[in-house]
Design a protein that fits this description.
Chain A: One of its GO terms (cellular component) is plasma membrane. Chain A: It is found in: Cell membrane. The complex is a heterodimer of chains A (about 290) and B (about 450). Chain A has about 290 residues and is mainly α. Chain A folds into 2 domains: about 55 residues; about 210 residues, MetI-like (MetI-like fold). Chain A contains 13 helices and no strands. Chain A is flat. Chain B folds into 2 domains: about 120 residues, no CATH class; about 200 residues, Orthogonal Bundle (MetI-like fold), CATH 1.10.3720. Chain B is about 55% helix and about 15% strand. In chain B, a hairpin with a 2-residue loop joins strand 11 and strand 12. The longest helix of chain B is centred in the last third of the chain and has 39 residues. The radius of gyration of chain B is 34 Å and the shape is elongated. The chains are: A mainly alpha (about 290), B alpha+beta (about 450). Chains A and B meet through helix 2, helix 3, helix 4, helix 6 and helix 7 of A and helix 1, helix 3, helix 6, helix 7 and helix 8 of B.
Chain lengths: ~290, ~450
């Protein structure tokens, strides 16, 4: 920028170079946008062609199914409170899966992050191994792990819990190791100088510094895990997703049940969203006050 | 400041002691609460009963199948016909002249050499002999009338033989022999995935890459490399072309969904941002709409949309789009509320119209942040697209659930898992590079 502000603004050289630069930039960004538009359009075309129903036909009938559900639920509105109550145990199971998976993933991610952060790791040479391990944990879609575990352990909440916990450990491990990198090393050195073991250095030197961030990310993960747990239920891992699939496969006549489940799921997600964002705000603001 | 009661050293000490005691109690109570919760879940999830339900033999099959394959030698006891086939599938059946050397047809007998000196001989009159070097011979005969009969008394059988008059099953580490009234079958296990590159009908089967590239022409019709590619791509056991399409469909879902959502969410985010929309009701409406889109969740969107559009990548893309419009709307409007007004005023002072003000005053400020968020979501949506594909029926998610449900093609499941993990890691890496470049471009 300083070049252009120089007094020789009228010098044809600078001016020409600037204009050329602008032209080239415009060309590049124009090309990027063009490629992007072509990709989007052709992508849409391909997706539309390979879909069972086309976009333009489906678009008009998009509201048919919600309308059916709402009509049926409205017609049987007297039974709605009873239905909502009936699915509360399934909802609790879904929440339990998410909560336990988040807890286990939280501790797993904490351990993984501590052994894969430069400056904190007890064995610095194997840091890359732990990092790749976390990458792999994150890359596995939960559904795959859950389905394989259902084959081995039988259907139920445990496969879903393990699947989500593994993924959570990888995801939180990565976030936590980024947090750890910003931790002040002085307390760790101080503890080391008095002969603290690695576990003690981490527990008293690092964790107190990073705990608010850890908790805040953990809460965010809990929100995500509730959604994941509902989805895994849909493929046979128990909880509210499983009930939803049952009422969906039955079709017409059970749509009031589907509606009840939709309502419960929606309310839960929104409620947890609100509560966790409240606590996360408090955690992050609390930290700002301390600084 | 006047000295109040709390300022005296004694009171301060009491306060400090009280606080430390509270912290101590918390340090004790939190782990106890977690432990109590875990105990509750331990029983709620029926973990004690898990040991009974767990099928460890399933796990063993799964692991063995994921890295090895077996070749079946089957005799139809009624017709006496013998076939040698990989995994017992018709597509993997060896033509007689290509049969492996460990199967020897010898004047009515078939000698099958297994590993470690074990062997199976299919003899005349539907007899079969399993030769175990450490145990001896187990002779069996299948007949219409008597079922399966053995030369040994049932008490003398070792635990790796399971026998009833309708079925004999001998399982050792070297191989396996099963016999029923209608069929005698011997299995031998091999390391690796069967027919991964070429099927048996391809002239390139069993050739090394060196032979294919530099060796003599194997098929008079086609050049070696082109022919090998055609046969590999059209391999009808592993269906590489279909798998590649499915993977592409999954990425396509994530791409269309994420970037489509970004395009839809950007103008809406202006409506939801305080500094661009002074009208309270409009802002409130936009924000609640975002909350609704996010709250409904991809699972419900997928179900609703698949009713209208049927299974396929478009449904998945739209499900991702609907959810992410909510997420992006929220993130974008927060970013827009933090823009610097000076640049907008500067652009406005040159007489720019509102659209120009947004384009040159606002977008350059927020673009790097927004794009890096979008890229981050793109990466995570590649994984979601697998899951959504499993529900709605499209992409690699569909293939992998189908393969898992059949409960026998674990080598294909492994193949798909490896593909998915590699793709997700590649996306992670790519979006990381692009994000770093965006952030650098911003500061430099």
């Amino acid at each position: 920028m300083a070049d252009f502000a120089a007094p020789a603004a009228n010098s044809p050289d600078t001016r020409g170079a600037y204009l050329a630069l602008t032209r080239r930039r415009r060309l590049y960004s124009g090309l990027t946008i063009l490629i992007f538009v072509v990709l989007m359009a052709s992508g849409f075309y391909v997706a539309d062609a390979r879909n069972a129903g086309g976009f333009w036909d489906g678009w008009r009938s998009m509201l048919d199914f919600p309308a059916d559900v709402v009509t049926e639920a409205w017609a049987k509105r007297a039974e709605m409170p009873g239905l909502l109550w009936r699915y509360v145990p399934a909802l609790i199971e879904t929440l339990n899966i998410a909560a336990v998976a988040t807890l286990l993933g939280f501790f797993g991610g904490m351990a993984l992050s501590l052994v894969s952060t430069r400056g904190l790791a007890p064995w610095p040479r194997v840091i890359p191994v732990f990092r790749r391990f976390m990458d792999i944990l994150r890359a596995f879609p939960e559904i795959v792990v859950a389905l394989v575990l259902i084959f081995v352990l039988g259907s139920g909440p445990v496969p879903a819990m393990i699947a989500i916990a593994l993924h959570t450990a990888g995801a939180l491990g990565k976030l936590y190791s980024e947090v750890n990198e910003n931790a002040d090393l002085k307390p760790v050195e101080g503890l080391q100088s008095v002969g603290a073991t690695w576990g003690q250095r981490m527990a008293y030197g690092v964790i107190p510094q990073v705990a608010p961030n850890y908790l805040s990310y953990g809460l965010l993960r809990f929100e995500i895990n509730i959604r994941a747990s509902a989805i895994l239920g849909f493929v046979g891992a128990g909880g509210i997703g499983y009930e939803l699939r049952n009422s969906m496969t039955f079709g017409m006549g059970k749509f009031d049940e589907a509606a009840a489940i939709f309502i419960l799921l929606f309310l839960t997600i929104v409620a947890v969203d609100q509560i966790s964002s409240h606590f996360r705000n408090r955690l992050t603001q609390g930290r700002e006050v301390l600084q | 400041m006047t000295a109040t009661a709390t300022d005296t050293p004694g009171a301060r000490q009491a306060e400090a002691v009280r606080r430390i005691a509270t912290k101590r109690r918390a340090a004790f109570a939190v782990p106890v609460a977690i432990l109590v919760y875990l105990v509750y879940v331990f029983f709620a999830f029926d973990i004690p009963g898990l040991a009974e339900r767990a099928r460890l033999d399933n796990a063993a099959t799964l692991v063995a199948d994921s890295y090895s394959h077996k070749v079946h030698v089957t005799r139809d006891n009624r017709s006496g016909e013998i076939t040698v086939a990989k995994e017992g599938e018709r597509k993997g059946t060896f033509p007689v002249e290509m049969e492996p050397p460990w199967v020897v047809r010898d004047a009515g007998d078939v000698r099958i050499a297994l590993e470690d000196g074990h062997a199976v001989i299919f003899g005349p009159d539907n007899t079969a002999v399993y030769i175990h070097p450490g145990f001896g011979r187990i002779e069996a005969q299948a007949s219409r009338a008597g079922g399966v009969q053995l030369n040994l008394a049932e008490e003398a059988l070792p635990e790796w033989v399971s026998y009833s008059s309708s079925r004999l099953d001998i399982r050792t580490d070297a191989g396996r022999l099963t016999m029923t009234r209608n069929r005698t079958e011997a299995y031998r296990y091999f390391f690796g995935w069967e027919l991964f590159w070429f099927t048996l009908d391809s002239p390139y089967y069993g050739r090394t890459p060196f032979e294919i590239v530099f060796g003599p022409q194997l098929d008079p019709e086609r050049a070696n490399v082109a022919g090998a590619w055609q046969d590999f791509w059209g391999n009808n056991v592993w269906r590489h072309a279909d798998v590649a399409w499915a993977m592409l469909e999954t990425i396509l879902m994530a791409f269309l969904g994420t970037f489509g959502a970004a395009i839809v969410a950007l103008p809406l985010a202006f409506v939801a941002a305080k500094n661009f929309t002074p009208l309270m009701t409009l802002r409130f409406g936009a924000r609640r709409a975002f909350d609704f889109l996010r709250g409904v969740d991809a699972l419900i969107w997928t179900i609703v949309l698949s009713r209208a559009f049927g299974p396929g990548p478009l449904t998945g893309a739209l499900a991702i789009l609907f959810t992410e419009v909510g997420s992006f709307g929220k993130i974008f409007s927060e970013a827009l509320e933090n823009v610097d007004d000076k640049q907008i005023e500067g652009v406005a002072s040159t007489g720019a119209r509102p659209v120009q003000r947004y384009r040159f005053g606002v977008l350059p400020q927020v673009m790097p942040v927004l794009l890096s968020q979008v890229l981050y979501f793109f990466e995570s949506n590649t994984r979601s697209a697998t899951v959504i594909g499993a529900i709605t029926g499209g992409g690699i998610g569909l293939l992998i659930t189908q393969a898992i449900i059949t409960q026998k093609d674990w080598e294909e499941v492994t193949y798909y898992i490896i593909l998915i993990v590699l793709t997700v890691m590649a996306m992670d890496w790519l979006s990381g590079i692009l994000r770093r470049r965006l952030i650098k471009g911003d500061t430099g």
